[in-house]
Amino acid sequence: MASSSPSSSSSSLSPPMIPMELHSLNREKLLNSLREHLSSSSRPLQGFVLLQGGEEQTRHCTDHLELFRQESYFAYLFGVQEPGFYGAIDIASRKSMLFAPRLPADYAVWMGEIKPLTHFQEKYKVTQVFYTDEIKEVLSNQYQEMGTPLLFLLHGLNTDSNKYSKPAEFQGIKKFQTDLNTLHPILTECRVTKSNLELALIQFANDISTEAHVEVMRKTKVGMKEYQLESMFLHHTYMYGGCRHCSYTCICATGDNSAVLHYGHAAAPNDKTLREGDMALLDMGAEYHFYGSDITCSFPVNGKFTRDQSLVYTAVLDAHDAVISVMSPGVSWVDMHKLAEKIILESLKKGQLLVGDVDKMMTERLGAVFMPHGLGHLLGIDTHDPGGYLKGAERPKEPGLSSLRTSRKLLEGMVITVEPGCYFIDALLLPALESPSVSEFFNHGEINRFRAFGGVRIESDVCVTANGCINMTKCPRKIEEIEAVMAGVPWPIKKTALPSGNGQV
């Protein structure tokens, strides 16, 4: 990463080329999994996978078009940026087809050149391209078997949003057989583990986001507005990374706002003035060619940690580092969440905010008072990538654990966020202080002193490898690193080499 002074911005990064082979490989992965499923079920290897891409949306009843972002499953398989497309894959021949909207002539006046079908065939590296009003005819003619063609449509529950994928619809679909059950779980599972080409895009999104976080960190000053921090991040990732989209709405929380887990929405719009003594919790991640990042940095807005800030921050950092140190294929994510909780509780006890037996605190689920959210989530084309709960899997019921976005064991190729946090949220803390089962664990005087503290979260994006994991996020994490960067030291900080002999620097 290029260094910069506190008053200037720069980047050593530039947007990488986007290989459409990435989406060809995604289609092959789906075909292989689907064909294997059909064979094991003694079903014929025929029919079409058919997905409908996203449509442009206007703002309520106006003619204002919101900036379009492709539906994620469609993006995964075809990489198409434009709205109004359909995509099909012939299971028997392995051919891939796109269906483009037939645009009116005046589109060229208002929106630009109307591209020929060959443009999309070359750009997206598919076998054939037709118009959307030809779907019925093309699929009927392509079908090489006897009887009515079968369409595998996308329909299934997203376990993060509790919403269902919308199956494709087109004029004439009633002439086909449709299967609404087979595709969704298979395609979702394909998205759970990433190819090297996918990882490269996620890594770039991490790298440009890391640069932006560092830029914001070193320019943060008491008296600024939270939205100025958001603005600096968005500018850097777009200016130097070509990232027109963010993975999610930026959370730029300072002071007591940092105890609001999803701060930054329209009713809490990153508009507070930064005050002396505040902690900042900045959860921001850029998206590049659909693939995202999700990074949280916490730091004091004046550049120097107080004793109380150091106590809470170190508790969270120790949990973050401990989880990453033991992540590998086969490790239970529920166990990782509990590990993070236990380390935070032990740290709070050491800091004299808590008293008593930590194992008993774990049994009583005290950790959920300080970390009510899950430890992390799958990451990829969506910030909360699907596949966290396999069909039939039950969510844990206990406080804190019930918020986990996955309860799976880790797999090689997964990208998952590690984001422990410690917050002082009155809505949770006050009932706990009065609860007969857990009130005995609190040092009430010390806890009350922290009630306006807010919270700390540290979040990195981690790829599970064959033997362990790789942290894709390279932000300053140690207290001394953060204070140095905020004082103007270039990042990454160059280590001073020890001369041979006396061991003196």
UniProtKB/TrEMBL annotation:
Pfam family, one: Peptidase_M24
UniProt protein name: Xaa-Pro dipeptidase
Assembly mode: Homodimer.
Gene3D superfamilies associated with the record: Creatinase/methionine aminopeptidase superfamily, Creatinase/prolidase N-terminal domain
Top-level taxon in the UniProt lineage: Eukaryota
SMART domains the record matches: AMP_N
Gene (UniProt): LOC104239171
Alphabetized UniProt keyword annotations: Dipeptidase, Hydrolase, Manganese, Metal-binding, Metalloprotease, Protease
Assigned protein family: Belongs to the peptidase M24B family. Eukaryotic-type prolidase subfamily.
Top EC class for this record: hydrolase
Cofactor(s), by name: Mn(2+)
The reaction(s) this protein catalyses: Xaa-L-Pro dipeptide + H2O = an L-alpha-amino acid + L-proline
